[in-house]
TrEMBL record, chain A:
Assembly: Component of the signal peptidase complex.
Main subcellular location of this protein, as a coarse class: endoplasmic reticulum
InterPro entries: LexA/Signal_pep-like_sf (IPR036286), Pept_S26A_signal_pept_1_CS (IPR019758), Pept_S26A_signal_pept_1_Ser-AS (IPR019756), Peptidase_S24_S26A/B/C (IPR015927), Peptidase_S26 (IPR019533), Peptidase_S26B (IPR001733)
Bilayer disposition of the protein: Single-pass type II membrane protein
Designated name of the protein: Signal peptidase complex catalytic subunit SEC11
SUPFAM superfamilies hit by this protein: LexA/Signal peptidase (SSF51306)
UniProtKB/TrEMBL annotation, chain B:
GO BP terms, alphabetized: protein targeting to ER; signal peptide processing
Membrane topology value: Single-pass type II membrane protein
Keywords: Endoplasmic reticulum, Membrane, Signal-anchor, Transmembrane, Transmembrane helix
InterPro entries in the cross-refs: SPC3
N-terminal signal peptide: none
PROSITE patterns in alphabetical order: PROKAR_LIPOPROTEIN
Transmembrane portions of the chain: 12-36
Function of the protein: Essential component of the signal peptidase complex (SPC) which catalyzes the cleavage of N-terminal signal sequences from nascent proteins as they are translocated into the lumen of the endoplasmic reticulum. Essential for the SPC catalytic activity, possibly by stabilizing and positioning the active center of the complex close to the lumenal surface.
One Pfam family, short name: SPC22
Organism of derivation: Exocentrus adspersus
Name by which UniProt lists this protein: Signal peptidase complex subunit 3
Family label: Belongs to the SPCS3 family.
Amino acid sequence: MDVATLFDDVKRMNKRQFLYQVLSFGMIVSSALMIWKGLMVVTGSESPIVVVLSGSMEPAFHRGDLLFLTNYPEEPVRVGEIVVFKVDGRDIPIVHRVLKLHEKKNGTVKFLTKGDNNSVDDRGLYAPGQLWLTKSDVVGRARGFLPYVGMVTILMNEYPKFKYAVLACLGLYVLVHRE
Amino acid sequence: MHSVIQRGNSILAYALSVLACLTFICFASTVFLNYVTDVKINTVKVVVKNVPDYSISREKNDLGFLTFDMQADLTPLFNWNVKQLFLYLTAEYETPSNELNQVVLWDKIILRGENAALDFKNMNTKYYFWDDGNGLKGNKNITLSLSWNIIPNSGLLPNIFARGSHSFKFPVEYTTSRM
């Protein structure tokens, strides 16, 4: 299939058919969005799937591995769990393990984290003056693991041109291809 | 007529779906397994000091020191979907200011294929046993327990408590001498 025949298809379409293609493209985009938002509701986490971006949890998690998170408020944070948290002034959430935890009678909890592959705890990574994490910093708790799959998004983020090329190809294919 | 792109596409799609199917079988074959075994923990030497924790503030906090014995055979926990065990020894206790304190004192990564029959005598802790205040001196009930976080090739990431824990008490006097 070369480019000329691709556009022949478009030429042979009438207005209604072209509109149908655009609509089906919209369906794909919106169902992807619905799945993502639906996962957010089911898991209680603002980002239910994250890609591991650093080697600080090696050898458990490598760059490009995929983690599935939940963040149910009734499930308490406990030591040894892998939490994904955000720190003020850093865009990228961090995936590390809870090392110490202190919970008061009224339920307020503060905890300290550390990466398995790091030799010191995370106080140096937190915002200046921040000594502990609290529940509000947590994006989710790691519950499931799938290796390598996130490599695609790492590639896309590191090579934006590759991302646009892939998106353009997919979009063109859906718009132009006739069922 | 099948072009090179079509052939490549179908080979890739087939390979990916076989891989996804195998991954799911790998996950499903181990998801209901029981990963609990016995462990023997004992403390050898226990002292408590009252020294400033400069990583938090200049105020003096209780700092516990202990050495421990531990025997466990974790070889049966490994199967084809266990990439790594993350062992951690937790001290759990209650203080007047905090209802629940959990401090990880020691941890260890065991990869599949490494020796998983543990027999430690008079081990030092890996992390400092700082309390969040002065709740260690004379504390009558500190529970040491071993847990593990199973890192699979793909699947869930359960945290499991071993059967068998050890409770001990801290001395009622601070130790002032160097150790």
